[in-house]
Amino acid sequence: RVPEAQAPGRPGRIARPTMTVLTPWQRLAIGCLAALTLWAIGVAGYMTIEGFSFLDALYQTVTAATTAGFGEINPLGSTGRAFTIAIIILGVIVILYVLTAVMQIAVEGELESILGARRMKSKIEALKDHYILCGFGRVGTEIAREFSARGVPFVIVESNPEAIGRAQAGGHLLVEGDATSDAVLREAGIERARGLLAASDSDAGNTFIVLTAKALRPDLYVVSRAARSESEPRMLRAGADRTISPYAIAGRRMALSALQPLMVEFIDALASGRHEEQILAEIEISEESGLGGRTIEDVMRSCREAVVLGVQRASGEIQVGPRSSALLEVGDRLIVLGEEAELEAIRPRR
Q: Domain-by-domain residue ranges, the chain?
């Protein structure tokens, strides 16, 4: 049987050779290797042809290959001069090859930086209902880790070069600049954001961040880090919806860990958000939800296995373990532990 590729009346298929495209760094490595090889050949050639010492042969090879033009260290014969011409020509070729690789690395690096910045900007512009994290220090790093674990969209605003490098290494969306700047917060998408966290290391800086954010978006939910207790009232006056003191929280947690270790573990388990098939969810009682004016028992009727842990009233008051007959009002928030599919069944009454 005649192979299909060679059958009469059929054009045979010609296999196209695959070409390997070298990266600029590979080309640079090849160029450096070629330069070392040329120098080795040159040294060996001058020592053999002209009887030069190793140092004289190396000097003559380098001056010829780099076209430095210092002249002959010793008089050369006809064979030596022909060999020198060859070294000069090959040296120029190697130098040009190395220079083109270096230029390609520089140009592509700059181009990649520009394209990377544009991709980052387009991703940030596509965000909606995200969080803006101002500050990527120790506290900001933990916030970013928690957001990433929960799949929460967020963008970091930072001006410190070291923190910027860590954020970029982590693959986070990033806006470089001062978080107290209107333009920087707009670039981070504050008009579309769901909330903002002022987590810089400076209480004064966090206060200014809160002021700037609230001036741009008075309805934006803002949480601010407060290192000192005396800074909390100022941040609240600036417009922060809530202030968090890492040191106060750490102190209370350490005391509870010593006095009631099981309680601390239970709280940590709840705060993790997901427990096998169950999740800790927050249900907002809004006008659109149609849940206002109904009792907790009525709202949770389709979620028999779910447990209502608490309710935050519109006034800010938190009720732990509320009665099932308690009436819910617009602005309240239910904290519920239950299966995700079951909680999705909560719908406005039609």
A: 24-120, 127-249, 273-343
Residue in the structure block whose two tokens are 């993790």: 272
In CATH, what number does 24-120 get? 1.10.287.70
Exposure string (b/e) for 319-328, b if CB count within 10 Å is 16 or more? Answer: eeebeeeeeb
- Per-residue model confidence as pLDDT tens digits over 163-174: 999 998 999 999
3-state secondary structure 180-205: CCHHHHHHCCCCCCCEEEECCCCHHH
Q: What is the CATH number of domain 273-343?
A: 3.30.70.1450
3/19 Cα distance (integer angstroms): 27
The helix (run of H) or strand (run of E) holding residue 133 is strand 131-134
Closest by alpha carbon to 318, among 242, 253, 213? Answer: 242
Flag whether pLDDT at 307 surpasses 80. yes
The mean per-residue pLDDT over the stretch 1-11 comes to 46
8 Å CB contact between 346 and 283? yes
Hey, what CATH topology would domain 127-249 get? Rossmann fold (3.40.50)
Closest CA to 307 of 286, 318, 295, 321: 321
